[in-house]
Amino acid sequence: MATYDFVFSALGLEDWCSQGQSSSPMSMAQLLSKAKGGDGTEVTSIWDLPFPSLDALHKSCSAWPQSRDLTKGLEDGFLQIKDNLSLVLDPITQPLSWSLDGALYTMLHTPWWIVIPVLLAVVFFVTKSWKLVSFVAGSIVLLAFIDYYDYAMQTLSIIFVCAFLCVLVGVPIGIAMSRSDVMQRMTIPILDMLQTLPPFVYLIPLIFLFSVTESKLYGIAIILYAIVPVIRLTNLGIRLVDKEVIEAADAFGMTPWQKLYKVQIPLALPNIMAGVNQTIMMSLAMVVIASLVSAPGLGVLVLKGIRNLELGVGLVSGLGIVILAVILDRVTKASLARINAAQKQ
Amino acid sequence: MTSDVKISIKNLYKIFGPTPDVALEYVRRGMGKAELLEKHNHVLGLRDINVDMHDGEITVIMGLSGSGKSTLIRHLNRLIEPTAGEIRVDGEDVLSFNENQLRELRRKKMSMVFQKFALLPHRTVLENAGMAMDVSGVSTADFEHEARKWLARVGLEGNEHQYPHQLSGGMQQRVGIARALVSNSPIMLMDEAFSALDPLIRSDMQDLLLELQEELKKTIVFITHDLDEALKLADHLVILKDGEVVQQGDPQDILLNPGDPYIVDFISDINRARVLRVRSVMKEPSGDAQDYAGDISEKDNLESVLSLSGGDTNLTFRVVRDGETVGDLSMKELTRALVPLAAASESRQKGR
């Protein structure tokens, strides 16, 4: 009847096959072929030989699982562990919600004539460059003047919180990786996966786990996406510290902790800061996508532009994101350059 | 010179590879470096090293690259673990030390100077110099006085607040030496400390080291691949080749009686007149009164005696130490000592 009947008959599995009656509803393809009449599975030429896939084998043996059984199984499995998982994850991630809500509240409820000077002071403190301060001042004033101030500040505060948490979690992971090759071998595949998974894919299981109204949902998505560079570059930076200097530290009797915070971290700092720069840029990219799951900020406007085909809104908010990106990049790069200048070998 | 043995190395072996213990057995049965590498894929680092380093002396370990000298010096403070053997510092077995004892040893007893300086680029010269103190938990304010003193002693007064990258190579190595001195440890390990410097600065640094040693009498272990440097600094010279000690002893002795063709090759290029000293070629005083052409010190090198004689080979000089006559030196004997060794052995064979 079907192409691969002979496999099952050769193995003597016909009984087992006929036991399993397909309980799942008919697929669209089956419906169509039924409507056409005739089973249409007869192979007439070797050119039409189907790959022995789940579905092709299912045609010969109804007890054989179909490919949608696989995806359905995954989904069922996830739903089964979901309650237990969120029981554990909910309390752990609750502080993330608090800090995101807190940052958003603080940023939006502090008057603009306090927030803007404070931001500029921070910029000056990390870069010591008046040129950059005036550029940032001009950009923020421009955004505020066209009434995008609130959105920009929402985006900015989400990035601050997420990037800060990325550094807080990522740097220790990077240090652990640099100290143990086993840890490095175990972590790198995970990092590779986080970096290559399409960003939208993070959102699906997260929606199942947390409620869309909670801010930790987008917080986790952003952190997972943006944490990778800071981990990688911390690991790399510490591994690249001059062997001679490490040897000197050993020869003068430093303990492992002294070596870490007196030699390795300070010397790896340029690399770690490069990682922080990348992390901030990636959180900015993700905060736009995360507006799909209720992250506030400029991303919402972009989404509105797409949904309602409001070209102007989309363009202006896109431009706002570009301005924020340029500000964040220039400021972190300038502080990185200052660190580099201080430790030129 | 008789003084206490400060560091004693006995039957030290080091083999690099996945199963050094197995390879060690082959080496003990006499397998050579090349064969071990080819058949068992292990690298013989050091073979049966026995060296006594005396208190207050400069022991120079010399060898070409790959001879195992840097490996050897790293065994003394256990930056590298030996495969077999014994290392004693002040009579204590370093290999039995646990981590804390080892750290104490590195902090209090041994300091190290590195070929590539290995200063901390993010710390000032002053903080670098005080690294050993800082490691033991002394605050910058407390070690500042000590660090400034030694920095001034090595000629870096006024550079305290600069960063290493602002200094030249020679000055960076001065910081390296100051760092070792500030730790106040009796033993200094110097791993090709002057090899990265250009010749003039290197000579300056050697003089500085000798001058400091005159005053401080530390036990210094100095690694070099440069024979001139070795002869200038050494009280005790150890020559390594392929991980084995070829000859060790008083450098003057080695120069006059090389025990191995390898060493003859090595020393054939050097200026013997500048390296040999009066004490190693002088004769016992003959007793009967001679007319001496002048007094020389036993520490003078032959070059200075040559220039004193003005080229006259009939003169005889009196050798004095602290005003006492300890021997005499005729220009004929001096000339004989200057004959290159390869030529000397040839003529001896002809005479037979």
Describe the fold and architecture.
With 345 residues, chain A is mostly helical. Chain A has two domains: 5-65, no CATH class; 73-342, MetI-like fold (Orthogonal Bundle), CATH 1.10.3720.10. Chain A contains 15 helices and no strands. Chain A has helices spanning 5-11, 14-19, 28-36, 54-60, 67-109, 112-127, 130-145, 149-179, 181-196, 199-209, 216-239, 243-251, 256-289, 298-307, 311-342. In chain A, helix 8 (149-179) packs antiparallel against helix 9, helix 8 packs antiparallel against helix 13 and helix 13 (256-289) runs antiparallel to helix 15 (311-342). The termini of chain A are far apart. Chain B is of the alpha/beta class and 352 residues long. Chain B has two domains: 52-267, P-loop containing nucleotide triphosphate hydrolases (Rossmann fold, 3-Layer(aba) Sandwich), CATH 3.40.50; 272-351, CBS domain Like (Alpha-Beta Complex), CATH 3.90.1280. Chain B is built from 17 helices and 13 strands. Chain B has helices at 20-28, 33-40, 69-76, 99-109, 125-129, 131-135, 140-153, 169-182, 199-216, 227-233, 251-256, 261-267, 272-275, 278-281, 302-309, 331-338, 341-351, and strands spanning 5-16, 43-54, 58-62, 84-89, 92-93, 110-113, 187-191, 219-224, 236-241, 244-249, 295-297, 316-321, 324-330. In chain B, the strands form three sheets. Chain B has a six-stranded mixed beta sheet with strand order 6-7-8-3-9-10, sandwiched between helices. In chain B, strands 2-1-4-5 form a four-stranded antiparallel beta sheet, sandwiched between helices. In chain B, strands 11-12-13 form a three-stranded mixed beta sheet. In chain B, helix 15 (302-309) links the parallel strand 11 (295-297) and strand 12 (316-321). In chain B, helix 7 crosses helix 8 (169-182). Chain B is globular and about 65 Å long. Chain B starts with a strand and ends with a helix. Classes of the chains: A mainly alpha (345), B alpha/beta (352). Chain A binds chain B through residues 242, 244-245, 247-248, 250-255, 258, 262-263, 266-267, 342-345, and chain B through 77, 79, 102-107, 110-112, 114-122, 131-132, 134-136, 163-165, 179, 183, 189.
